[in-house]
Amino acid sequence: MEKLFSTIHIFEGISEKSKEALRTIKRREAKYSSNDLVIESGEDIKEICIILEGVLRCTEFTNTGKSVNSSYYGPGVSFPFYMLYGGETKYSFDTYAIRKTKVVWFAWDDIKNIIENDIKFMKNVMIYIAEFTCYNQRILRALQYRRVKDRLVYWLVNINNPSITINIPISQGVLADILHVNRSTLNKELNLLQESGAISIGNKRIEVLDFQYLKDLL
What is the mean predicted confidence (pLDDT) over 129-153? Predict the structure, then answer.
């Protein structure tokens, strides 16, 4: 637990009383291999998941089995707070590990009481939910653009702080899935932006070199 307190945002600055309560409530660690089903759509939401290592992909499907939306969660992510505080009681998506993944689960009834008795803890969770919601809204706005280039540029300009190096989320394939574009076309557009001098790509990272140039493309 001590490592969680120092590395997971929602635990930042919470009271010693809350920390002690978290140490004593039941929790379970679980490890998943690539492609393991972690959560099935329709299951009751009874626990909060914190990802320690690896990546989970949450995918919603239509009645015909077509994938309509995928979200990816990496180390440090906690979910599904937004669903529980939104009144949802069942998962609306299937969740798979897309690589070896380690998580810790907390019973919702137990951790909910601790959160609601610690103002700082509650504030952290509310900020976390707000940031999560804003991120997803930006993704939706990116998808309003028809061209791959425009979706990519919008993501580069708006999803991250352009003054810092951007980590490509897991892989270019995952980024392509997030933006609902073809991977090879995305790779082509990234290379063109790099050739233009607007960005620099290396070691799964993108550095924005000319923010104004990117803004002018939209």
Answer: 91
Residues with Cβ within 8 Å of 117's Cβ and at least 6 positions away in sequence, in order, are: 18
CA gap 178, 72 in Å, rounded: 8
| Domain termination site, one of 87, 112, 140 | 140
Model pTM? 0.82
> How many Cβ atoms from other residues are within 10 Å of residue 60's Cβ?
15
Residues 16 and 45 in one domain: yes
Same domain membership, residue 20 and residue 36: yes
> CA 53 to CA 162: how far, in whole Å?
26
Q: b/e per residue, 180-197, with b = 16+ CB within 10 A?
A: ebeeeebeebbeebbeee
pLDDT tens per residue, range 48-92: 999 999 889 998 765 665 666 678 888 889 989 999 999 999 998
